[in-house]
Write a structure and sequence with these properties.
The protein is built from 15 helices and five strands. With 364 residues, the protein is mainly α. The strands form two sheets. The protein has a three-stranded antiparallel sheet. A two-stranded antiparallel ribbon has the order 1-2. The longest helix has 40 residues.
Length: 364
């Protein structure tokens, strides 16, 4: 059922699945390609010596970009410094981005315990994202989504009294309906959550975390490394246009194809990132082994590629040695060009600049 009055609450939002045919020839053809690349990504994660090796870096990048879609903007430098120094001086936008990572991990733990993606899981993720407790679905009327430039209303979600029932139906579809390709189903459930707009804030970020959890539930991923917020940022206008045209025109095919393209491009880029990072990691280890027989090359290398920003206390806390010993390690790596140093206030950071270049630059 299309909805053409953006000022009126979409209380008649239909439950899933859509009444129209959504697995068109074009959708099924593209879903084959998307599933192929996703399977390659899953396999690439399985061949990592440490399955959690790149989670810190990949999830932080996803956290930063998913938050940027909601205009919560920070930098990689600020994020990694905040991880090493979680003091009261951390800017609020950095705290918000770091909460995304916490929400992702908490969501994985909860889903692994229950095996299901429920409304309560969505609520818990939203609360983690926002740093609040005991808040459920929105209860105040008058929620409207507006164009940030013109301030014109572009969509009004269902009134609060309809939200709980629609989320119950959403939950049933996600956990019970197996008639669709999982990637098509992910696109359907993401649209529906955005259209219900169950929370006063955090809907988009909650939905993007749930996408990854759903792929893990379906055993399409073993680690939360599908990093698709970067694609949405690059195609932000198309993302919101496709969402809106499902509401206004029942244009499901274009929306699903957009989400499948996001899976394809994101999988390709993440595969390349993993390959380049592992290659760089092996190259770094070979150099470390030549520096000193006393240096714990393997252990040090693992730390370098799990957290690009280090300081002396980081290595002390990881039982790598005394202050003079670990200072010697880090200074030797900096002298060799493997790390660069940066002074911020009284702190001295040692940065794996080559890994940061992979994280922040285009990966081709």
């Amino acid at each position: 059922m299309a909805w053409t009055d953006p000022e009126a609450p979409f209380n008649e939002l239909p439950n899933l699945p859509p009444a129209t045919q959504v697995e068109t020839t074009a959708v099924l053809k593209k879903s084959i390609t998307a599933n192929k690349y996703l399977a390659e990504l899953k396999g690439s994660c399985l061949r990592l010596p440490d399955p959690g090796l790149l989670l810190n870096t990949v999830i932080l990048q996803e956290s930063k970009d998913s938050s940027a879609i909601e205009n919560i903007v920070t930098t990689q430098d600020a994020l990694y410094q905040a991880i090493l120094d979680p003091s009261d001086g951390v800017p609020s936008e950095v705290k918000e981005v770091l909460r995304y990572r916490e929400a992702m991990y908490a969501g994985i733990d909860e889903m692994n315990r229950t095996g299901l993606i429920r409304s309560g899981l969505a609520i818990n993720i939203m609360c983690k994202l926002r740093g609040i407790n005991n808040q459920g679905f929105r209860t105040l009327p008058g929620t409207k989504l507006s164009n940030p430039q013109s301030q014109r209303t572009i969509y009004t979600p269902p009134d609060p009294q309809f939200v709980s029932g629609k989320m119950t139906e959403w939950e049933k579809f996600v956990n019970e309906n197996e008639d669709f390709d999982p990637l098509v189903k992910m696109a359907l459930m993401h649209y529906q959550l955005e259209a219900i707009h169950p929370f006063s804030d955090g809907n988009g970020r909650t939905g993007r975390i749930l996408n990854v959890l759903y792929l893990m539930q379906q055993n399409l991923l073993t680690q939360p490394v599908l990093y698709h917020s970067s694609y949405i940022i690059q195609h932000k206008a198309d993302y919101y246009r496709c969402l809106r045209e499902v509401t206004e025109k029942d244009a499901w095919e274009a929306w699903i194809l957009f989400m499948l393209d996001a899976v394809i491009e994101t999988s390709q880029k993440t595969l390349t990132f993993i390959d380049k990072t592992l290659s760089l990691k092996e190259e770094t280890l070979a150099i470390l082994k030549t520096l000193s027989q006393k240096m714990p090359a393997y252990e040090l290398n693992e730390i370098l590629y799990s957290l690009p920003y280090l300081k002396i206390k980081t290595l002390i806390d990881k039982n790598m040695g005394t202050r003079p010993t670990v200072t010697g390690y880090l200074d030797a790596l900096a002298e060799k060009g493997l790390l660069i140093t940066r002074k911020v206030g009284r702190e001295k950071y040692y940065i794996n600049h080559r890994l940061m270049a992979l994280l922040t630059g285009p990966v081709e």
